[in-house]
């Protein structure tokens, strides 16, 4: 009969084979899109699954310079940085108020903010566009920043409120004895201890603003203010699509998000698991 140790080893082998297979299935499309970005349009049309006969790294130069991707990249970076800054600042302050302070309407206001997460994005596009026109913010980067931040704040407040409520009351009482005000306790004690959660929230907010397309399509008409997702439309016409540059543009658009995740991967995992460890 097979011993318990052998069964355990077989189980771990099976799990590793299963995980390796899942990773391979995930990486195959990524490998295919990278290979396709090095082909010409003729090669893509004739044999989409074959390897390139002569890799065309010029596709990246043509997409970056010829299609104004350098300008779109800068717009996306600016919008992303301001969106993340606004979400982290307003979201953490509001979450601290809901988590650690008692004031009239605390639960009611929090419930109303939480309900904002239940509305689909398409349901708020009409009011959003009308509001931006009245504020004369259409065709400005601030229209995107405010729109993206408003869409991310309900989740940000919910996440940070749960995180702040996990800190013991004794910590706040000790800070009060030392003479800390609410703001000092928030800045000097809570924020440094909340770095993993803030990093995770920042990654979510950045990814949301970086990849968003529909709101940007409605709010931005000037080519000079377009973000990367909008810039991908430059490769598509009524009767022709430049597949080589389109796929190259997709890689350029996705690369910064991958780099940000790799850099902050440890913080991201810590932030996701912090609440379960308290």
Low-confidence runs (pLDDT<50, min 5 residues)?
A: none
Strand-pairing-aware structural class: mainly alpha
End-to-end CA span: 44 Å
Number of domains: 2
The CATH topology of the largest domain, please?
MetI-like fold
Order of helices and strands: HHHHHHHHHHHHHH
CATH architectural type of the largest domain: Orthogonal Bundle
Q: Give the overall shape, derived from the CA principal axes.
A: flat
SS elements, strand count: 0
DSSP strand content = under 5%
Q: What is the average of the pLDDT values?
A: 84
| Whole-angstrom Rg | 24 Å
- By DSSP (H or I, 4+ residues per run), the number of helices equals 14
CATH class of the largest domain: Mainly Alpha
Classify the oligomer: single chain
CATH homologous superfamily caption of the largest domain? MetI-like
| Helix percent band | over 70%
Largest sheet: none
3D structure, described in words:
- The chain has 278 residues and is mainly alpha-helical.
- It folds into two domains: 4-36; 67-277, Orthogonal Bundle (MetI-like fold).
- Helix content is 74%, strand content 0%.
- The protein contains 14 helices and no strands.
- Helix 5 (106-115) packs across helix 7.
- The mean pLDDT is 84.
């Amino acid at each position: 009969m097979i011993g318990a140790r052998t069964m355990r080893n077989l189980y771990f082998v099976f799990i590793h084979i299963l995980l390796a297979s899942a990773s391979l299935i995930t990486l195959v499309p990524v490998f295919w899109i990278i290979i396709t970005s090095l082909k010409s349009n003729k090669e893509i049309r004739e044999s989409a699954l074959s390897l390139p006969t002569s890799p065309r790294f010029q596709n990246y130069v043509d997409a970056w310079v010829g299609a104004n991707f350098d300008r779109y990249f800068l717009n996306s970076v600016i919008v992303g940085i301001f969106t993340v800054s606004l979400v982290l600042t307003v979201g953490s302050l509001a979450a601290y108020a809901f988590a650690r302070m008692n004031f009239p309407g605390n639960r009611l206001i929090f419930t109303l903010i939480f309900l904002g997460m239940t509305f689909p994005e398409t349901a708020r596009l009409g009011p959003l566009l009308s509001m931006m026109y009245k504020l004369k913010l259409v065709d400005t980067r601030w229209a995107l920043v405010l729109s993206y931040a408003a869409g991310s704040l309900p989740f940000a407040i919910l996440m940070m409120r749960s995180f702040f409520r996990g800190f013991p009351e004794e910590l706040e009482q000790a800070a009060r004895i030392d003479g800390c005000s609410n703001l000092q306790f928030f800045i000097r004690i809570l924020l440094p201890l909340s770095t993993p959660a803030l990093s995770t929230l920042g990654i979510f907010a950045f990814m949301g603003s970086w990849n968003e397309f529909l709101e940007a399509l409605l709010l931005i008409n000037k080519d000079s203010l377009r973000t990367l997702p909008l810039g991908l439309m430059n490769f598509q016409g009524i009767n022709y699509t430049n597949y080589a540059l389109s796929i190259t543009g997709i890689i350029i658009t996705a690369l910064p998000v991958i780099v940000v995740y790799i850099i902050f991967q440890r913080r991201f995992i810590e932030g996701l698991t912090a609440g379960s460890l308290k």
